[in-house]
Structures are given as C-alpha cells and as structure tokens.
Specification:
Length: 140
C-alpha cells in the first residue's frame, strides 16, 4: 500500500481520563471515561471518536460507490454506534452498528450500495474479522 496521508495523535495524562492532541493541533481535547463505565463522563471518549470517524469514512465510501453507479444519494446519512464490553478473554472488545439512510432510493438499491461501501471503506477493511460490524439501511 502506498500511504497518501498519515494522521498523528498523542495521548497524555491518564489514558481514558486524559488528553488527546493531533500533531497539527486541529484535534485538541480532554477525554473521559463515560458514566456507563463508571467514569465522570462530560467529555468525549475513544469510542465516540471512533464512531464519528467511522460514520464519516463510511458515508464517503457510500458516496463514492453511488457516483460510480451513477446514482444520486440525495439527503443521505450514516450513523455509527460503537459499543465496548468484556470479550470473555480478560480484555475488551468493540462492536459497530452502521445505520445508513438514503431516502431517495428504493431500500434494496440503497442496501446494495451500502454493502459495496462496506467493501471499500478503509474502516470496514481495517475492522473486518476483528470487530462485529453490522450495516443496516433504514428508511429514515
């Protein structure tokens, strides 16, 4: 693979209760353990950042496959839910659910495009076989 862009970030402090900053300073924020995991909450957490990145990346992949198929997505959107929990082996694992909305296309056509996007999205390719990822097309 020829790398065309590299993102860099540094975590400091106490990990999930610390600070993250990208090398260019565009991302510069505190992170906190969510209340559901016994933390104080009130700030982004790694799963939230992963969900935002995956949603944006997948939406871009969806737009790319739609363009190639000469289809218009209209007012489409992609939502990502990232879950974390014990993996049964002493560590933790993640799950991802992507919800795709393409109101201007028939459901079957939108699902076919979403399935194609799942094959080309870099996040999908990175997680395939490592994380349970479901892709669902909904009508709204």
């Amino acid at each position: 693979m020829t790398t065309i862009y590299t993102a860099e970030a540094l975590a400091t402090g106490a990990g999930r209760n610390g600070h993250v900053r990208s090398s260019d300073g565009l991302l510069d924020l505190d992170v906190r353990v969510p209340t559901e995991m016994g933390g104080a909450g009130g700030a982004p957490n790694p799963e939230m950042l992963f969900a935002a990145g995956y949603a944006a990346c997948f939406h871009s992949a969806l737009q790319g496959v739609a363009r190639a198929a000469k289809r218009e997505l209209g007012d489409s959107s992609v939502g990502a839910r990232v879950g974390i929990g014990p993996n049964g082996s002493g560590g933790y694992g993640l799950t991802v659910h992507l919800e795709v909305v393409v109101p201007d296309l028939p459901h079957d056509e939108a699902q076919a495009l979403a399935d194609q996007a799942h094959q080309v999205c870099p996040y999908s390719n990175a997680t395939r076989g490592n994380i349970e990822v479901t892709v669902t097309v909904t009508d709204d």
